[in-house]
Please model this.
Amino acid sequence: MCPITVMSEGAEVTVARVTGGGESSRRLSELGLIPGAKVRIVQNGGGPLLLKVGDSRFALGQGMALKVFVDGNC
Model:
């Protein structure tokens, strides 16, 4: 298990755990980043990550992204 920030572009991963306080956990949940969710890393260039969850694409800042841990080849 590793933070989603270390995954390379094009990787498809499964969310294993989301950490953080109530507000950040709630926001990540609203975006679909919950344990078991399948996520594709569209762009990861050191700034905000561009993620795809289902049919939705969105940018997630590094601070929030560090709260999302995924299963995958770290």
About this structure: Residues 2-71 form a domain with the SH3 type barrels. fold (CATH 2.30.30.90).
